Amino acid sequence: MLLSFTDKGLYCAAGDFYIDPWRPVNKAVITHAHSDHARWGHKYYLCHHYTKPLLQARLGDNYYESIGWNEPIYINGVKVSLHPAGHIIGSSQIRLEHGGEVWVVSGDYKTEDDGISGAFEVVPCHTFITESTFGLPIYNWKKQAGIYEDIRQWVTHNAEQFNTSVIIGYSLGKAQRILTAVAPLEKPVYVHGAVWNMHQAILSAGIALPQVHRVTPETTKAELKGSIVIAPSSAEGSPWIRRFSPYNVAVCSGWMQVRGNVRRHNADAGFVLSDHADWNGLLGTIQATGAERVYVTHGFQSALSRYLNEKGIWSAEVKTEYGGEEENAESGKAVNTAEE
After folding, report:
1. pLDDT tens digits for range 205-238
2. Cα torsion at 39, 41, 46, 51 (round to 10°)?
3. What is the mean pLDDT of residues 242-253?
4. What does the DSSP assignment read for 78-143?
5. CA distance 253 to 239
6. Domains in the chain, CATH or no CATH each
7. DSSP letters along 255-288, please?
8. Which of 70, 85, 98, 317 sees the fewest Cβ atoms within 10 Å?
9. Could you read off the pLDDT of 180-201 as tens digits, one per residue?
10. What residues form the membrane-spanning segments (predicted)?
11. How many CA atoms lie within 13 A of 219 on its CB side?
């Protein structure tokens, strides 16, 4: 096997490196900058050019090397290349080739092009390691354009009532899509400090984003009245959010597909906006890779793996430590939100 599943993460013995390891290692190839996939403590990091400034912002100074998509390098004889995953800015699938075998590690991915994260690329392989965050048939996403229009209509209605629109979304990935959605309204957009930090890191990568203003103690109620505020989940129900009164709150997450989650968040609205593939996206991708073997990681891995086996595609579940930050934050579960 080109990759083995260890207590530190996905290990390539031929190349002597790990992919998204969750324990400190010597060499780590990173799919994207969410902290359940990119952790502190590795000696050497390899990632996409756009991911590097995000890792620097989150993990501080380390030895980082970055490459572009479809620019192969060799690590101890193993051919390694990165390919767009469409999950967030810089997110990549990792393709490994050695001894006639091709393996692809998806990391997290979505198949609809959001216009800022890079269009997902199907990478043919013998073995595919896929996520399954939303690996149930109930998860079937509406097209992004329709969701963006729904968000804009909600914000416009709030403004007519002189209410501030507070939109909750993860600080890296979701917040940038929300910003893109509301940009045509040409209203001032204020952001939480966690969103601001990621915004600055993305700008430093050379990626253009609409202008935002950081919420500070000096920001006046007059400035905020009728405006748009983007904040992470840790801001829900906090003293920080009360300064925007009167306001309405919306949560953007794939978990909003399940009836009752809007109420559980005590939100006024929920928009089903996910940075992960839905059920059909997962199945379509797996089939398109032509993979003979499929390993299913974090999410509804049991359901997806069982379905694939029933359809004649060899599949097995793999236990990992992924899914502990972004997905939990969006679903409202307790997470460490110190940075937010």
Report:
1. 899 999 999 999 999 988 888 899 999 999 988 8
2. 40
3. 94
4. EEEEEEE--SSTT-EEEEEEETTEEEEE--S--SS--SSS--------SEEEEEETT-STT--PPP
5. 23
6. 4-139+275-331 (3.60.15.10), 144-271 (3.40.50.10890)
7. GGGSTTHHHHTT-SEEE---SS--HHHHHHHHHH
8. 70
9. 999 999 999 999 999 999 999 9
10. none
11. 19
Burial label for 305, CB within 10 Å (0-12, 13-18, 19+), is buried
Measured CA to CA, the distance from residue 258 to residue 316 in angstroms comes to: 27
Name the pairing type of β-strands 17-19 and 10-12. antiparallel
- What are the tens digits of pLDDT across the range 147-182? 999 999 999 999 999 999 999 999 999 999 999 999
Res 329 pLDDT > 80: no
**Contact present, 336 and 329 (Cβ < 8 Å):** no
Which residues partner with 81 through β-bridges?
95
Residue indicated by tokens 């030895």: 63
Confidence (pLDDT) at 264? 79
Length of the chain, please?
A: 340
The arithmetic mean of pLDDT across residues 51-79, rounded, is 97
Q: Which residue has the tokens 């804009």?
A: 152
> C-alpha distances in angstroms, 145 versus 84, 112, 165?
21, 11, 20
Round to whole Å and give the CA distance between 239 and 49.
37
- Rounded-to-integer distance, Cα 323 and Cα 7, Å: 16
Cα distance between the two ends of the chain:
40
Which amino acid is it at 12? C
Between CA 294 and CA 320 the distance in angstroms is 15
| Amino acid found at 282 | L
CA 274 – CA 60 distance, rounded (Å): 28
